[in-house]
Description:
The structure is a single chain. By secondary structure, the protein is of the alpha/beta class. The chain folds into three domains: 2-144, Rossmann fold (3-Layer(aba) Sandwich); 152-389, pyruvate-formate lyase- activating enzyme; 395-474, CATH 2.40.50.140. The chain is 34% helix and 23% strand. The chain contains 14 helices and 20 strands. The strands form four sheets. A six-stranded parallel β-sheet has the order 2-1-3-4-5-6, with helices on both faces. The chain has a six-stranded parallel β-sheet with strand order 7-10-11-12-13-14. It has a five-stranded mixed barrel with strand order 15-16-17-19-18. Helix 9 (227-236) runs parallel beside helix 10 (257-265). The N and C termini lie far apart (46 Å). Residues 117-132 and 466-476 have low confidence and may be disordered.
Amino acid sequence: MKYHLITLGCPKNKVDSDGIETLLRTADYRVTDSARDADVLIVNTCGFLEAAKEESIGVLDELARRKRKHQVLIAAGCLVQRNGAEVLRRVPKVDGLLGTRRWMDVLELLGMIRGGNGRRRLQQYDLLGDAPQPVPALLDDPVHAFAAATPRPSLVTGSAYLKISDGCNAPCAFCTIPSFKGKLRSRPLDAIVDEARALVDAGARELVIVAQDSTDYGRDWGEPNSLPRLLAAICNHTDERLRWVRLMYAYPGHVSDELIEVMASQPKITPYLDMPLQHGDPRTLRRMRRPSRPETVFEHVEKLRRAMPDIALRTTFIVGYPGETEEEFQGLLDFARAIEFDKVGAFTFSAEPGTPAAALPDQVDDDMKQARYARLMEQQQPISLRKNQAQVGRMLEILVEGEGEIEGSREPLLLGRSYRDAPEIDGLVLVPGAGGVAAGEIIQVHINGAMEYDLVGELLRGEIFPSNRAAIEFAV
Protein backbone atom coordinates (compact mmCIF):
# COMPACT_ATOMS: atom_id res chain seq x y z
CA MET A 1 0.00 0.00 0.00
CA LYS A 2 1.24 3.49 -0.85
CA TYR A 3 0.40 6.92 0.56
CA HIS A 4 0.78 10.47 -0.74
CA LEU A 5 0.71 13.22 1.89
CA ILE A 6 0.56 16.99 1.31
CA THR A 7 1.23 19.35 4.22
CA LEU A 8 -0.04 22.93 4.17
CA GLY A 9 0.42 25.69 6.70
CA CYS A 10 2.84 26.17 9.56
CA PRO A 11 5.64 24.06 11.06
CA LYS A 12 3.24 22.73 13.70
CA ASN A 13 1.36 20.99 10.90
CA LYS A 14 4.65 19.60 9.64
CA VAL A 15 5.21 17.96 13.04
CA ASP A 16 1.79 16.29 12.87
CA SER A 17 2.44 15.11 9.32
CA ASP A 18 5.72 13.56 10.46
CA GLY A 19 3.74 11.64 13.06
CA ILE A 20 1.19 10.48 10.48
CA GLU A 21 3.98 9.27 8.19
CA THR A 22 5.68 7.40 11.00
CA LEU A 23 2.47 5.53 11.82
CA LEU A 24 1.79 4.72 8.17
CA ARG A 25 5.30 3.37 7.69
CA THR A 26 4.99 1.14 10.75
CA ALA A 27 1.86 -0.29 9.12
CA ASP A 28 3.85 -1.10 5.94
CA TYR A 29 2.60 1.84 3.89
CA ARG A 30 5.20 3.25 1.48
CA VAL A 31 5.44 6.88 0.46
CA THR A 32 5.03 7.92 -3.17
CA ASP A 33 5.53 11.31 -4.78
CA SER A 34 2.80 10.54 -7.29
CA ALA A 35 -0.80 11.08 -6.22
CA ARG A 36 -1.95 8.81 -9.00
CA ASP A 37 0.10 5.87 -7.68
CA ALA A 38 -1.11 6.23 -4.07
CA ASP A 39 -3.73 4.09 -2.36
CA VAL A 40 -4.22 6.75 0.34
CA LEU A 41 -4.23 10.51 -0.26
CA ILE A 42 -3.90 12.77 2.79
CA VAL A 43 -3.98 16.57 2.92
CA ASN A 44 -2.99 18.12 6.24
CA THR A 45 -4.89 21.38 5.86
CA CYS A 46 -4.44 24.90 7.19
CA GLY A 47 -7.46 26.90 8.32
CA PHE A 48 -5.81 29.90 9.95
CA LEU A 49 -6.71 32.49 7.30
CA GLU A 50 -9.30 32.58 4.53
CA ALA A 51 -6.53 32.44 1.93
CA ALA A 52 -5.08 29.34 3.58
CA LYS A 53 -8.53 27.77 3.75
CA GLU A 54 -9.08 28.33 0.04
CA GLU A 55 -5.68 26.85 -0.76
CA SER A 56 -6.54 23.75 1.29
CA ILE A 57 -9.91 23.37 -0.43
CA GLY A 58 -8.22 23.80 -3.80
CA VAL A 59 -5.67 21.05 -3.12
CA LEU A 60 -8.38 18.68 -1.86
CA ASP A 61 -10.59 19.43 -4.86
CA GLU A 62 -7.74 18.80 -7.30
CA LEU A 63 -7.03 15.42 -5.74
CA ALA A 64 -10.73 14.56 -5.58
CA ARG A 65 -11.31 15.29 -9.27
CA ARG A 66 -8.47 12.93 -10.24
CA LYS A 67 -9.17 10.32 -7.59
CA ARG A 68 -9.36 6.77 -8.85
CA LYS A 69 -12.07 4.34 -7.78
CA HIS A 70 -10.21 2.58 -4.99
CA GLN A 71 -8.22 5.54 -3.67
CA VAL A 72 -8.99 6.98 -0.23
CA LEU A 73 -8.88 10.75 0.30
CA ILE A 74 -8.48 12.03 3.87
CA ALA A 75 -8.70 15.67 4.92
CA ALA A 76 -6.77 16.30 8.13
CA GLY A 77 -5.70 19.19 10.30
CA CYS A 78 -6.84 22.70 11.14
CA LEU A 79 -9.45 23.39 8.47
CA VAL A 80 -11.12 20.07 9.23
CA GLN A 81 -11.25 20.90 12.92
CA ARG A 82 -12.44 24.44 12.21
CA ASN A 83 -15.14 23.55 9.68
CA GLY A 84 -15.32 19.93 8.60
CA ALA A 85 -18.85 20.40 7.31
CA GLU A 86 -17.67 22.99 4.79
CA VAL A 87 -14.91 20.66 3.63
CA LEU A 88 -17.47 17.96 2.87
CA ARG A 89 -19.88 20.37 1.19
CA ARG A 90 -17.20 21.70 -1.14
CA VAL A 91 -15.26 18.46 -1.68
CA PRO A 92 -17.83 15.66 -1.35
CA LYS A 93 -15.36 13.01 -2.51
CA VAL A 94 -13.43 13.29 0.76
CA ASP A 95 -13.62 9.86 2.44
CA GLY A 96 -12.61 10.76 6.01
CA LEU A 97 -11.87 13.63 8.37
CA LEU A 98 -9.02 13.69 10.89
CA GLY A 99 -8.89 16.46 13.50
CA THR A 100 -5.89 18.39 14.76
CA ARG A 101 -5.26 16.22 17.81
CA ARG A 102 -6.26 12.91 16.26
CA TRP A 103 -3.40 12.45 13.80
CA MET A 104 -2.19 9.55 15.92
CA ASP A 105 -5.41 7.69 15.00
CA VAL A 106 -4.91 7.78 11.23
CA LEU A 107 -4.75 3.99 11.05
CA GLU A 108 -8.03 3.71 12.97
CA LEU A 109 -9.64 6.13 10.52
CA LEU A 110 -8.37 4.12 7.55
CA GLY A 111 -9.78 0.99 9.14
CA MET A 112 -13.17 2.68 9.53
CA ILE A 113 -13.17 3.80 5.90
CA ARG A 114 -12.07 0.49 4.45
CA GLY A 115 -14.23 -1.48 6.84
CA GLY A 116 -17.39 0.40 5.97
CA ASN A 117 -18.01 1.54 9.53
CA GLY A 118 -18.44 5.21 8.76
CA ARG A 119 -21.77 5.57 10.55
CA ARG A 120 -20.18 4.51 13.82
CA ARG A 121 -18.61 7.97 14.18
CA LEU A 122 -21.14 10.03 12.30
CA GLN A 123 -23.06 11.20 15.37
CA GLN A 124 -19.84 12.61 16.79
CA TYR A 125 -19.28 14.62 13.61
CA ASP A 126 -22.88 15.85 13.54
CA LEU A 127 -22.19 17.82 16.71
CA LEU A 128 -20.27 20.26 14.49
CA GLY A 129 -22.86 20.54 11.75
CA ASP A 130 -25.05 18.55 9.41
CA ALA A 131 -22.94 16.06 7.51
CA PRO A 132 -24.05 15.69 3.88
CA GLN A 133 -22.87 12.08 3.81
CA PRO A 134 -21.82 9.43 6.35
CA VAL A 135 -18.09 10.17 6.30
CA PRO A 136 -15.95 8.76 9.15
CA ALA A 137 -14.61 11.59 11.29
CA LEU A 138 -12.23 11.53 14.23
CA LEU A 139 -12.63 15.04 15.57
CA ASP A 140 -12.95 14.70 19.32
CA ASP A 141 -10.05 15.56 21.60
CA PRO A 142 -8.88 12.67 23.78
CA VAL A 143 -6.48 13.86 26.46
CA HIS A 144 -4.55 10.62 26.63
CA ALA A 145 -3.89 10.47 22.92
CA PHE A 146 -2.21 13.87 22.71
CA ALA A 147 -0.14 13.26 25.83
CA ALA A 148 1.09 9.89 24.62
CA ALA A 149 1.81 10.88 21.02
CA THR A 150 5.55 10.77 20.33
CA PRO A 151 6.46 10.60 16.63
CA ARG A 152 9.49 8.45 15.81
CA PRO A 153 10.82 9.62 12.42
CA SER A 154 13.10 7.22 10.61
CA LEU A 155 15.22 9.89 8.92
CA VAL A 156 15.85 13.62 9.44
CA THR A 157 18.11 15.75 7.27
CA GLY A 158 19.62 18.42 9.46
CA SER A 159 16.69 20.25 11.02
CA ALA A 160 13.49 19.08 12.72
CA TYR A 161 10.55 20.76 14.40
CA LEU A 162 9.68 19.77 17.97
CA LYS A 163 6.16 20.67 19.12
CA ILE A 164 5.88 21.16 22.88
CA SER A 165 2.21 22.09 23.23
CA ASP A 166 -0.97 22.61 21.28
CA GLY A 167 -3.81 25.08 21.59
CA CYS A 168 -3.65 28.62 22.97
CA ASN A 169 -5.01 30.63 25.90
CA ALA A 170 -4.31 34.08 24.43
CA PRO A 171 -7.42 36.21 23.70
CA CYS A 172 -6.14 37.82 20.47
CA ALA A 173 -9.14 39.38 18.70
CA PHE A 174 -7.95 38.54 15.18
CA CYS A 175 -7.03 34.88 15.67
CA THR A 176 -9.10 31.79 14.91
CA ILE A 177 -6.72 29.28 16.48
CA PRO A 178 -8.41 28.84 19.89
CA SER A 179 -11.72 28.15 18.14
CA PHE A 180 -10.41 24.94 16.58
CA LYS A 181 -7.21 24.18 18.51
CA GLY A 182 -8.79 24.70 21.91
CA LYS A 183 -7.06 25.76 25.09
CA LEU A 184 -3.38 25.24 25.77
CA ARG A 185 -2.33 21.68 26.41
CA SER A 186 1.33 21.12 27.19
CA ARG A 187 2.99 17.83 26.39
CA PRO A 188 4.70 16.03 29.27
CA LEU A 189 8.35 17.02 29.64
CA ASP A 190 9.59 13.43 29.50
CA ALA A 191 7.69 12.77 26.25
CA ILE A 192 9.24 15.85 24.65
CA VAL A 193 12.75 14.86 25.73
CA ASP A 194 12.17 11.34 24.40
CA GLU A 195 11.11 12.76 21.05
CA ALA A 196 14.12 15.10 21.02
CA ARG A 197 16.41 12.11 21.47
CA ALA A 198 14.62 10.21 18.72
CA LEU A 199 14.97 13.15 16.34
CA VAL A 200 18.69 13.40 17.07
CA ASP A 201 19.07 9.66 16.50
CA ALA A 202 17.27 10.15 13.18
CA GLY A 203 19.78 12.80 12.07
CA ALA A 204 18.61 16.13 13.52
CA ARG A 205 21.41 18.62 14.11
CA GLU A 206 18.93 21.39 14.90
CA LEU A 207 15.67 21.22 16.87
CA VAL A 208 13.22 24.07 16.30
CA ILE A 209 10.88 24.45 19.28
CA VAL A 210 7.34 25.30 18.16
CA ALA A 211 3.91 25.81 19.75
CA GLN A 212 1.12 28.34 19.45
CA ASP A 213 2.83 30.09 22.38
CA SER A 214 6.04 28.34 23.39
CA THR A 215 6.56 30.55 26.46
CA ASP A 216 3.19 29.45 27.89
CA TYR A 217 4.44 25.89 28.26
CA GLY A 218 3.34 24.32 31.54
CA ARG A 219 0.77 26.97 32.48
CA ASP A 220 -2.09 24.50 32.04
CA TRP A 221 -0.75 22.34 34.87
CA GLY A 222 -0.02 25.29 37.15
CA GLU A 223 3.67 25.86 36.29
CA PRO A 224 3.66 28.85 33.92
CA ASN A 225 7.44 29.28 33.72
CA SER A 226 8.32 25.72 32.75
CA LEU A 227 9.97 26.46 29.41
CA PRO A 228 13.44 27.13 30.89
CA ARG A 229 13.38 23.76 32.64
CA LEU A 230 12.25 22.02 29.46
CA LEU A 231 14.98 23.64 27.34
CA ALA A 232 17.63 22.70 29.88
CA ALA A 233 16.35 19.10 29.91
CA ILE A 234 16.49 18.87 26.10
CA CYS A 235 20.06 20.20 26.08
CA ASN A 236 21.25 18.05 28.99
CA HIS A 237 19.69 14.80 27.74
CA THR A 238 20.87 14.90 24.14
CA ASP A 239 24.42 14.24 22.98
CA GLU A 240 26.85 16.36 21.00
CA ARG A 241 25.22 15.46 17.68
CA LEU A 242 22.61 18.09 18.50
CA ARG A 243 24.20 21.48 17.80
CA TRP A 244 21.32 23.97 17.79
CA VAL A 245 18.08 24.37 19.75
CA ARG A 246 16.05 27.25 18.31
CA LEU A 247 13.07 28.88 20.06
CA MET A 248 10.07 30.15 18.10
CA TYR A 249 6.80 31.90 18.99
CA ALA A 250 7.59 33.59 22.30
CA TYR A 251 4.75 35.71 23.68
CA PRO A 252 5.55 39.29 24.81
CA GLY A 253 5.59 39.47 28.59
CA HIS A 254 6.37 35.76 28.97
CA VAL A 255 10.10 36.05 28.28
CA SER A 256 11.25 35.57 31.86
CA ASP A 257 14.64 36.23 33.41
CA GLU A 258 14.98 32.46 33.90
CA LEU A 259 14.39 31.87 30.20
CA ILE A 260 17.01 34.45 29.23
CA GLU A 261 19.49 32.88 31.65
CA VAL A 262 18.99 29.39 30.19
CA MET A 263 19.28 30.69 26.64
CA ALA A 264 22.51 32.51 27.49
CA SER A 265 24.08 29.66 29.46
CA GLN A 266 23.22 26.59 27.36
CA PRO A 267 25.65 26.30 24.41
CA LYS A 268 23.17 24.34 22.31
CA ILE A 269 20.53 27.07 22.43
CA THR A 270 21.05 29.47 19.56
CA PRO A 271 21.09 33.19 20.35
CA TYR A 272 17.91 33.65 18.34
CA LEU A 273 14.37 34.44 19.42
CA ASP A 274 11.16 34.78 17.45
CA MET A 275 8.69 36.99 19.36
CA PRO A 276 5.62 37.89 17.23
CA LEU A 277 4.46 41.29 18.53
CA GLN A 278 1.77 42.03 15.89
CA HIS A 279 1.99 45.83 16.34
CA GLY A 280 3.87 48.59 18.09
CA ASP A 281 1.19 51.18 18.88
CA PRO A 282 -0.62 50.74 22.23
CA ARG A 283 -4.02 51.75 20.81
CA THR A 284 -3.92 49.16 18.06
CA LEU A 285 -2.60 46.53 20.46
CA ARG A 286 -5.51 47.14 22.84
CA ARG A 287 -8.00 46.55 20.03
CA MET A 288 -6.05 43.40 19.16
CA ARG A 289 -6.38 42.27 22.80
CA ARG A 290 -2.61 41.98 22.94
CA PRO A 291 -0.13 43.23 25.58
CA SER A 292 -0.14 46.98 25.02
CA ARG A 293 2.92 48.30 26.85
CA PRO A 294 5.75 48.68 24.34
CA GLU A 295 7.96 49.66 27.26
CA THR A 296 7.86 46.02 28.40
CA VAL A 297 9.14 44.91 25.00
CA PHE A 298 12.01 47.39 25.18
CA GLU A 299 12.91 46.01 28.61
CA HIS A 300 12.89 42.41 27.35
CA VAL A 301 14.96 43.29 24.29
CA GLU A 302 17.50 45.13 26.43
CA LYS A 303 17.85 42.12 28.74
CA LEU A 304 18.17 39.72 25.81
CA ARG A 305 20.83 41.79 24.08
CA ARG A 306 22.74 42.34 27.28
CA ALA A 307 22.80 38.60 28.03
CA MET A 308 23.46 37.59 24.39
CA PRO A 309 25.11 40.44 22.43
CA ASP A 310 24.99 38.40 19.20
CA ILE A 311 21.29 37.51 19.47
CA ALA A 312 19.16 37.68 16.33
CA LEU A 313 15.64 38.91 17.11
CA ARG A 314 12.70 38.20 14.84
CA THR A 315 9.15 39.54 15.02
CA THR A 316 5.94 39.68 13.00
CA PHE A 317 3.57 42.62 12.51
CA ILE A 318 0.03 42.97 11.18
CA VAL A 319 -0.71 46.12 9.17
CA GLY A 320 -4.14 47.48 8.30
CA TYR A 321 -5.87 46.30 11.48
CA PRO A 322 -9.38 47.76 11.87
CA GLY A 323 -9.21 51.33 13.12
CA GLU A 324 -5.49 51.66 12.40
CA THR A 325 -5.04 55.36 11.72
CA GLU A 326 -2.08 56.92 9.98
CA GLU A 327 -0.88 58.03 13.42
CA GLU A 328 -1.07 54.48 14.78
CA PHE A 329 0.73 53.09 11.76
CA GLN A 330 3.43 55.71 12.24
CA GLY A 331 3.65 54.48 15.84
CA LEU A 332 4.39 51.00 14.49
CA LEU A 333 7.08 52.37 12.18
CA ASP A 334 8.67 54.35 15.03
CA PHE A 335 8.59 51.27 17.30
CA ALA A 336 10.22 49.00 14.70
CA ARG A 337 12.86 51.64 13.90
CA ALA A 338 13.72 52.11 17.57
CA ILE A 339 14.23 48.41 18.33
CA GLU A 340 15.84 47.45 15.01
CA PHE A 341 14.82 43.83 14.81
CA ASP A 342 17.15 41.62 12.81
CA LYS A 343 14.24 39.96 11.01
CA VAL A 344 10.71 41.27 10.40
CA GLY A 345 7.78 39.45 8.85
CA ALA A 346 4.58 41.34 8.01
CA PHE A 347 1.02 40.47 7.03
CA THR A 348 -1.95 42.50 5.97
CA PHE A 349 -4.97 42.06 8.24
CA SER A 350 -7.43 39.36 7.24
CA ALA A 351 -10.95 39.55 8.68
CA GLU A 352 -11.58 35.96 9.75
CA PRO A 353 -15.25 34.99 10.23
CA GLY A 354 -16.17 34.49 13.87
CA THR A 355 -13.34 36.57 15.31
CA PRO A 356 -14.04 39.80 17.25
CA ALA A 357 -11.77 41.73 14.87
CA ALA A 358 -13.96 40.87 11.88
CA ALA A 359 -16.84 42.81 13.45
CA LEU A 360 -14.83 45.91 14.38
CA PRO A 361 -15.73 49.22 12.72
CA ASP A 362 -13.37 51.23 10.55
CA GLN A 363 -12.01 48.37 8.46
CA VAL A 364 -8.98 49.46 6.44
CA ASP A 365 -9.32 49.08 2.67
CA ASP A 366 -7.06 46.70 0.77
CA ASP A 367 -5.12 49.38 -1.08
CA MET A 368 -4.18 51.07 2.19
CA LYS A 369 -3.16 47.72 3.69
CA GLN A 370 -0.83 47.00 0.79
CA ALA A 371 0.64 50.51 0.87
CA ARG A 372 1.38 50.23 4.59
CA TYR A 373 2.87 46.78 4.16
CA ALA A 374 5.22 48.16 1.51
CA ARG A 375 6.22 51.10 3.72
CA LEU A 376 7.00 48.85 6.67
CA MET A 377 9.13 46.47 4.62
CA GLU A 378 10.87 49.34 2.87
CA GLN A 379 11.85 50.73 6.26
CA GLN A 380 13.08 47.34 7.47
CA GLN A 381 15.31 46.56 4.48
CA PRO A 382 18.20 48.92 5.36
CA ILE A 383 18.01 47.76 8.98
CA SER A 384 18.27 44.12 7.90
CA LEU A 385 21.11 45.00 5.52
CA ARG A 386 23.03 46.78 8.27
CA LYS A 387 22.54 43.82 10.62
CA ASN A 388 23.83 41.46 7.94
CA GLN A 389 26.77 43.70 7.08
CA ALA A 390 27.86 43.44 10.71
CA GLN A 391 28.44 39.73 10.09
CA VAL A 392 31.03 40.35 7.34
CA GLY A 393 34.44 39.17 8.48
CA ARG A 394 33.05 36.64 10.95
CA MET A 395 33.41 32.87 10.88
CA LEU A 396 29.97 31.30 11.17
CA GLU A 397 28.86 27.71 11.32
CA ILE A 398 26.15 26.95 8.79
CA LEU A 399 23.79 24.02 8.51
CA VAL A 400 23.87 22.91 4.87
CA GLU A 401 20.44 22.70 3.26
CA GLY A 402 21.37 21.84 -0.31
CA GLU A 403 23.21 22.78 -3.46
CA GLY A 404 22.46 24.74 -6.59
CA GLU A 405 24.18 26.59 -9.38
CA ILE A 406 24.98 30.26 -9.80
CA GLU A 407 22.55 31.74 -12.30
CA GLY A 408 24.02 31.98 -15.77
CA SER A 409 26.86 29.57 -15.07
CA ARG A 410 27.49 26.02 -14.01
CA GLU A 411 29.46 27.06 -10.95
CA PRO A 412 28.18 25.24 -7.84
CA LEU A 413 26.47 27.12 -5.04
CA LEU A 414 26.12 25.78 -1.51
CA LEU A 415 23.01 26.84 0.44
CA GLY A 416 22.93 26.89 4.23
CA ARG A 417 21.68 28.68 7.32
CA SER A 418 23.54 30.20 10.25
CA TYR A 419 22.22 30.45 13.79
CA ARG A 420 20.65 33.75 12.70
CA ASP A 421 18.20 32.11 10.29
CA ALA A 422 15.23 29.91 11.09
CA PRO A 423 14.23 27.36 8.43
CA GLU A 424 11.74 28.39 5.75
CA ILE A 425 11.16 31.97 6.97
CA ASP A 426 14.57 33.67 7.18
CA GLY A 427 17.51 34.10 4.83
CA LEU A 428 20.33 31.86 3.70
CA VAL A 429 24.11 31.82 3.61
CA LEU A 430 25.22 31.42 -0.01
CA VAL A 431 28.65 29.86 -0.64
CA PRO A 432 29.66 30.22 -4.33
CA GLY A 433 32.08 27.72 -5.77
CA ALA A 434 31.46 25.14 -3.06
CA GLY A 435 29.88 21.76 -3.50
CA GLY A 436 30.04 18.16 -2.45
CA VAL A 437 28.77 18.75 1.07
CA ALA A 438 25.69 16.76 2.03
CA ALA A 439 22.55 18.38 3.38
CA GLY A 440 22.50 18.20 7.16
CA GLU A 441 26.24 18.76 7.62
CA ILE A 442 27.57 21.71 9.60
CA ILE A 443 30.53 23.60 8.15
CA GLN A 444 32.42 26.77 8.98
CA VAL A 445 32.17 29.66 6.54
CA HIS A 446 33.97 33.00 6.38
CA ILE A 447 31.34 35.69 5.70
CA ASN A 448 32.53 38.08 3.00
CA GLY A 449 29.31 39.62 1.70
CA ALA A 450 25.86 40.72 2.79
CA MET A 451 22.48 41.49 1.21
CA GLU A 452 19.18 42.55 2.77
CA TYR A 453 18.16 39.00 3.59
CA ASP A 454 21.08 36.69 2.74
CA LEU A 455 24.77 36.42 3.56
CA VAL A 456 27.59 35.35 1.24
CA GLY A 457 30.53 33.29 2.45
CA GLU A 458 33.52 31.24 1.43
CA LEU A 459 34.92 27.97 2.66
CA LEU A 460 38.29 28.16 4.34
CA ARG A 461 40.40 25.26 5.45
CA GLY A 462 38.37 23.92 8.33
CA GLU A 463 36.19 21.19 9.64
CA ILE A 464 32.88 19.66 8.62
CA PHE A 465 30.77 18.37 11.47
CA PRO A 466 28.78 15.49 9.94
CA SER A 467 26.09 13.61 11.79
CA ASN A 468 28.35 10.61 12.27
CA ARG A 469 30.87 12.88 14.02
CA ALA A 470 33.77 11.87 11.76
CA ALA A 471 35.63 15.10 11.04
CA ILE A 472 36.53 15.64 7.41
CA GLU A 473 39.28 18.07 6.47
CA PHE A 474 38.87 19.95 3.24
CA ALA A 475 40.32 22.91 1.42
CA VAL A 476 39.01 25.28 -1.21
